[in-house]
Amino acid sequence: xxxxxxxxxxxxxxxxxxxxxxxxxxxxxxxxxxxxxxxxxxxxxxxxxxxxxxxxxxxxxxxxxxxxxxxxxxxxxxxxxxxxxxxxxxxxxxxxxxxxxxxxxxxxxxxxxxxxxxxxxxxxxxxxxxxxxxxxxxxxxxxxxxxxxxxxxxxxxxxxxxxxxxxxxxxxxxxxxxxxxxxxxxxxxxxxxxxxxxxxxxxxxxxxxxxxxxxxxxxxxxxxxxxxxxxxxxxxxxxxxxxxxxxxxxxxxxxxxxxxxxxxxxxxxxxxxxxxxxxxxxxxxxxxxxxxxxxxxxxxxxxxxxxxxxxxxxxxxxxxxxxxxx
Length: 326
Description:
Blueprint: H1 2-45, H2 49-72, H3 82-109, H4 115-126, H5 134-141, H6 147-173, H7 180-188, H8 191-202, H9 209-235, H10 243-263, H11 272-282, H12 289-296, H13 301-325
């Protein structure tokens, strides 16, 4: 009788937990999907210069101030410096698996993609949208308490990985003019990194309640605008070619890498909400930086565009899987 009651109670708790996840997911899809849809519609109607201007505003003002605000509300306790280390593990693992995929394709099909296409395949497998898309999803599913883990993962891991390792890879396989300053400049002048540093120093400074309130509202408004901007940019992506090749990169980036590394997170002492944040960041679709780098270094732009658009759709399917597993 006692064990029957325990089993019934366990089943009820399990159902309640699954119901809570489904409710959170539904709310997330409504909010995020609705904002991206609004951006998609606006992107079709408004001049092309609008998403460009909005992107510049978020890049120089919105994102840095948001980082300062969220850092004031986040906990920096624990092994938070391991977050960027795992980001680099994810980047290198994605690149290595993509390289093996290219070699396997050459072996079984006797066809070798051109160098620019190889570079785009590897970039799409190694670089994730951990900022504009990863931040809102992390905030919605986990909250602000451990949001600093997502910040450390992105700003000290994904971002230098994109404009450091990513640019080096593009310079190796692609064309265009490139030098050391071209590689270093995006990192050194990036306002998000400056906002991150200022936010760390500004965490313990006491400010008036009304200023704190306005700072938080501005931060959430910037998150909203970033989702609208994603919709606007997706509206401008017209190419769905190269889908089979993009599928290989997406399978590596959004399935294999988070599954492999997510399963060993407990070895680093990462469990619970923190592990969920890391997995969500690893499972994000390819970053818009892949398209920027492809255009700058004359890589396979069509492949980059296809990976971006398809990855955003695939995320709707993979997101509940990762929340259930972790």
